[in-house]
Design brief:
Layout lengths: L1 H15 L15 H10 L1 H17 L3 H21 L7 H17 L6 H22 L6 H23 L5 H25 L5
Length: 199
């Protein structure tokens, strides 16, 4: 148990360097490539999207596909809200909270009913999409940028599913839950940064 906690803490510490402003990017105007890189280089997005795939794999069918399909569909709605300039309350806090809570449900192997799990994922997806949408008008090719971030999101979900399939074995189950704990720690770090707790 002790070595897993130390390993998770080490991974979290290494990944924390210089990522407090994970969602703030410059030079996003390139279109497809910039859109594709945005969820991957925005570490708060990356860990939350991987967690969706992990949780879906833990829950099994049909959640293994429903959750990763729900997220990008609802994220697109959030993206439209961002493009239209419709404000959402505390978007960066919600994004950080999504990583914290999604990591926790994986770490705890929480088995919610499908509708509740999909609703939770959808609620967070709106905020992730909104953050992308706010930046879309700045892109040289907004459509290509949008396609890029949706494709990247899908691939991150698939990565989470692939890792989550390790739960079929005892050691893999512990590894996946440990990864969920690490994601929760990362989300907690971002949440503290968003709230101004970390200076």
């Amino acid at each position: 148990m002790g070595i897993r906690i130390r390993t998770a803490a080490l991974l979290a510490g290494v990944t924390m360097a210089d990522i407090a402003a994970a969602h703030e990017q410059t030079d996003i105007g390139g279109g497809l490539v910039s859109g594709f890189l945005h969820p991957i280089t925005g570490f708060d997005h990356l860990v939350a999207m991987v967690a969706v795939g992990l949780w879906g794999a833990q829950l099994g069918a049909p959640a293994i596909w429903v959750l990763p399909i729900t997220f990008p569909l609802v994220m697109a709605v959030g993206g439209v809200l961002g493009v239209l300039g419709v404000p959402l309350p505390a978007p960066q806090i919600a994004i950080s909270l999504s990583a914290l809570l999604l990591g926790m449900v994986v770490a705890l192997r929480l088995r919610l009913p499908l509708a509740a799990a999909a609703s939770m994922v959808a609620d967070f997806a709106v905020f992730h999409g909104h953050a992308h949408g706010v930046e879309l008008p700045k892109a040289a090719d907004p459509m290509a940028y949008g396609v890029g971030f949706v494709v990247a999101t899908g691939l991150l979900h698939l990565s989470g599913i692939a890792i989550g399939l390790l739960t079929r074995w005892g050691t893999g189950e512990r590894l996946v839950r440990g990864l969920g704990g690490t994601i929760a720690m990362i989300g907690g770090y971002f949440l503290a940064a968003s709230l101004g707790v970390l200076k």
